[in-house]
From TrEMBL:
Protein's name according to its UniProt entry: Alpha-1,4 glucan phosphorylase
Species of provenance: Ligilactobacillus ceti DSM 22408
Family: Belongs to the glycogen phosphorylase family.
Free-text function comment from the UniProt entry: Phosphorylase is an important allosteric enzyme in carbohydrate metabolism. Enzymes from different sources differ in their regulatory mechanisms and in their natural substrates. However, all known phosphorylases share catalytic and structural properties. Allosteric enzyme that catalyzes the rate-limiting step in glycogen catabolism, the phosphorolytic cleavage of glycogen to produce glucose-1-phosphate, and plays a central role in maintaining cellular and organismal glucose homeostasis.
Domain of life: Bacteria
Enzyme Commission numbers on file: 2.4.1.1
Molecular function terms, GO-annotated: glycogen phosphorylase activity; pyridoxal phosphate binding
Keyword entries, A-Z: Allosteric enzyme, Carbohydrate metabolism, Glycosyltransferase, Pyridoxal phosphate, Transferase
Residues modified to N6-(pyridoxal phosphate)lysine: 646
Catalytic activity annotation: [(1->4)-alpha-D-glucosyl](n) + phosphate = [(1->4)-alpha-D-glucosyl](n-1) + alpha-D-glucose 1-phosphate
Protein's GO biological process: glycogen catabolic process
Family matches, as InterPro entries: Glycg_phsphrylas (IPR011833), Glyco_trans_35 (IPR000811), Pyridoxal_P_attach_site (IPR035090)
Gene Ontology CC: one annotated term: cytoplasm
Length: 809
């Protein structure tokens, strides 16, 4: 049946009445939302079911993306868009006098991730389905998403994010697919069974992993893939072993929180258990499926590609080995061959402190058999290097060292592909941090620059600009992101440039309304909206931005008539709960904001807005309103960045260091349409090698730096006695690990250019247009298509066929 507006209205009324016994006038937004979601689900369920059946019947090779984080945000609008129902539903609801956008606000963000890494995993889910590729996600169904951030007296306060309280409309619990996981055995012994020696686990406990599946709807192609998130439960047969509430709670806790407190050994053990839990559940489930389809495990790599997203799921490697050896009775060599053919790994960071290492005894306690297998992988690896005459590479690349398991080593040794997430990152991986591995296995290393879900960031988030695009270049860009380049023809067309500026202005008005409500602060859409939105981390250098704000404020205090373009500095950032320095920086941003925002003498030329509880949904509001995108990490530190891509696609101009994917953005838009400054990777590397950097020299010799830093400690910014001193010390006594002071003057100079450029609205709009036009380059569709072709060797199984979602019952 064709999904028409009339049909939708009739169905909507019927379901609302059946579900809630109310009519439209009485219904709450929650009831309206649930009703709408149920119609959407019914619209894709059949395609979902068919897709699973087809893949099994045709024996299509499938990718499984294992990630400890998935950060999809809200799904209602993107499902509607992907199904091709968006306009019909909006118009139907309008006829019913319902405000669609108000209804969408009810949905809680699915925030099962911290930042870029989790968002990338969600983008890849969407892109796989939208490319008709058979790809599944495998992760954890956390009861609490990423913490809810409140700012109290300028400090970050973390509150639980109970996103599941009102249920999740998009998930389906699949009891029949549950699997059991054995942990904490105290001993493993070998027993003969059916002519094989099999390990028998003594002691320990069994946990049941129950999957909740979320349908991932492809963009107007009828392809619905599966995102499988696991929850932990106590199996009925084991109930007597969990007698106290405390023991039961331990199991519930397993999937409660996204990032358990890693300052205690209990928290760290819990995190490791989470890693093993979703890995074991996922791999068991894949093998079951494979065997049920009647395939031989010898041929696993013809049907299955398993992707390890950062090292968190690396236990995939020993777990698959365990199942092949112990349950399927393969010999080591054959099992290893299968495992390495199936596994591939993405590295997302080269920061030493983020490289996972686990104490041996944690893994031993978790599962002694897994530890045995890791030891054997290590033993054979060391032996093979000795045989190859490359013993000198053993210490730096071996898996077990200093009583710790190095997860990166395990990942690289057990995979056939290792990729970085931007060209520079891959180059640094090969030439510096993982160079010894690169010398051993050059063929494994490759680059896959990140991408973004352009449909969400443009079609859904920026309807104003989308309308301008439709009018100017037609609608093909909605399907093929590269067609945005057609816009280049209009770079000197005054009418189009004005329309682009106007769209931006309307988005700024919308954001200003939000800021008025949330922060009680009036900001003018005529000012430059200068945006830095990302996790708070010293290497991302929110501090560099803040120091410049202080500098501008000092200049204005000296000369209130200073001719600068009014600017609103907008921050959105969460700090990891245990990351003290990051929290100190948040406090400083807020107090500098308080001082500036309440000072009448500077005539509203500066405002500082810290938008609390930054999320995917807030990003959808902020990004379309941004004029300037701050991408100012210390060169070599940001593996890729993805907000840089979202912001350029929405016409913001980037102020950037030559780091991560900023470099590729520059290559796309050209030097004239981006503002580059700062130390290069070679300069940073040289400072690190020679240890010649002296932050005190900058403080003592450069008056503008001294003046700004002194403001942190001389009481001129109220309420940061402790925090101001802390930041001052980080930048001086602790020698400014991220070269903030070295880059400060370059940053001031480039921002002066931004100030000048903004004064010429048409020239600015032209640069903005070029950024939008080139934004299509960073579509996640293209990125996953490269993974599909070059790493996973999977092929599209669904061709574009919009009609499929219309088989609506
Ligand atoms: C990225 C992480 C990360 N890199 C450890 N590494 C985590 C590491 O909970 N943990 O233990 C969580 C996250 N996240 C980001 O990945 C990079 O910093 C970005 O530059 C990159 O764009 C993003 C996606 O590749």
């Amino acid at each position: 049946m064709q999904f028409t507006k009339e049909y939708f209205i009739q169905e909507f009324k019927k379901r609302l009445n059946e579900g809630y016994a109310v009519d439209i006038k009485q219904a709450s937004n929650f009831e309206l939302y649930q009703t709408l979601a149920s119609i959407v689900r019914s619209g894709y369920n059949n395609a979902w079911h068919q897709n699973i059946k087809n893949n099994a019947r045709e024996g299509n090779k499938q990718a499984y993306y294992f990630s400890i984080e998935f950060l999809p945000g809200r799904l209602l609008q993107s499902n509607l868009l992907n199904m091709g129902w968006y306009d019909t539903v909006i118009s139907g609801l309008k006829d019913l006098d319902i405000d669609f956008y108000e209804v969408t606000e009810i949905e809680k963000d699915m925030a099962l991730g911290n930042g870029g890494l989790g968002r990338l995993a969600a983008a890849f889910m969407d892109a796989l389905a939208s490319s008709g590729l058979p790809g599944n996600g495998n992760g954890i169904r956390y009861k609490y998403g990423l913490f809810k951030q409140k700012i109290v007296d300028g400090y970050q306060v973390e509150l639980p994010n109970e996103w599941l309280n009102q249920g999740n409309s998009w998930e389906v619990r699949r009891d029949s697919k549950a699997v059991d996981i054995h942990i904490n055995a105290t001993e493993v012994s070998l027993l003969e069974k059916d002519g094989h020696l099999v390990p028998v686990y003594h002691g320990g406990k069994v946990i049941r992993a129950v999957p909740y599946d979320v349908g991932v709807v492809g963009f107007q192609n009828g392809c619905v893939n599966n995102l499988r998130l696991w929850d932990a439960e106590i199996p009925e047969s084991e109930e007597v072993n969990y007698r106290t509430l405390d023991e039961r709670r331990k199991i519930e806790d397993l999937t409660s929180i996204l990032y358990p407190d890693d300052s205690t050994s209990e928290g760290r053990r819990l995190r490791l258990l989470q890693e093993y839990f979703f890995v074991s559940a996922g791999i068991q489930s894949i093998l079951k499926h494979h065997k049920k389809a009647g395939h031989n495990l010898n041929k696993l790599a013809d049907y299955v590609a398993i992707h390890i997203n950062d090292t968190h799921p690396v236990l995939c490697i020993p777990e698959l080995m365990r199942l092949l050896l112990d349950e399927e009775h393969y010999g080591w060599d054959e099992a290893w061959e299968i495992t390495t053919q199936v596994m591939s790994y993405t590295n997302h960071t080269l920061m030493a402190e983020a490289m996972e290492k686990w104490p041996i005894h944690y893994i031993q306690e978790l599962q002694p058999r897994i530890y045995q297998i890791i030891c054997e992988i290590e033993r054979r690896y060391v032996e093979s290097l000795e045989k190859r005459g490359q013993a000198e590479l053993i210490p730096s690349t071996r898996i077990i060292a200093d009583n710790q398991i190095r997860m990166v080593s395990l990942a690289i040794i057990g995979s056939h592909s290792v990729n970085g997430v931007a060209k520079l990152h891959t180059e640094l991986m090969k030439s510096q941090v993982l160079n010894d591995f690169y010398r051993l296995f050059p063929e494994r290393f490759n680059n896959k620059t990140n991408g973004i879900t352009e449909r969400r960031w443009l079609q859904i988030a920026n309807r104003e600009l989308s309308k301008v695009l439709d009018k100017t270049i037609g609608k093909t860009w909605r399907y093929a992101a590269d067609d945005l380049e057609m816009l280049l023809k209009y770079q000197d067309d005054e009418k189009v440039l004005k329309e682009i500026n106007h769209a931006k202005y309307q988005n700024k008005v919308r954001l200003a309304e939000h800021v008025k409500k949330s922060n009680g602060l009036k900001i003018s859409p005529d000012a430059i909206f200068d945006v830095q939105i990302k996790r708070l981390h010293e290497y991302k250098r929110q501090l560099l931005n803040l120091l410049r704000i202080i500098k501008l404020y000092q200049d204005l205090k000296e000369n209130p008539n200073l001719d600068i373009q009014p600017r609103v500095f907008i921050f959105g950032a969460k700090a990891a709960p245990g990351y003290h320095e990051a929290k100190v920086i948040i406090k400083c941003i807020n107090e500098v904001g308080n001082l500036i925002n309440n000072d009448q003498t500077i005539q509203d030329k500066l405002k500082v807005v810290f938008i609390e509880d930054y999320s995917v949904s807030l990003a959808e509001l902020i990004i379309p309103a941004a004029d300037v995108s701050e991408q100012i990490s210390t060169a070599t530190k940001e593996a890729s960045g993805t907000s840089n891509m979202k912001l350029m696609l929405n016409g913001a101009l980037t102020v950037a260091t030559l780091d991560g994917a900023n470099i590729e953005i520059k290559d796309q838009v050209g030097d004239d349409n981006i503002f580059i400054f700062g130390l290069t990777k070679d300069e940073v590397t040289a400072h690190n090698q020679t240890q010649d950097y002296c932050a005190w020299d900058y403080y003592n010799n450069i008056p503008v730096i001294k003046r700004v830093l002194d403001a942190l400690i001389d009481g001129s910014i109220p309420n940061i006695q402790v925090e101001g001193r802390h930041v001052f010390d980080l930048l001086t006594r602790f020698n400014d690990q991220f070269f903030v002071l070295a880059d400060f003057e370059g940053y001031l100079a480039i921002q002066e250019q931004v100030d000048q450029a903004y004064r010429k609205p048409l020239a600015w709009a032209k640069m903005s247009l070029i950024n939008i036009a080139k934004g299509g380059h960073f579509s996640a569709d293209k990125t996953v298509q490269r993974y599909a072709k070059e790493i996973w060797h999977i092929k599209p199984v669904v061709e574009k066929d919009e009609a499929k979602y219309d088989s609506y019952q």
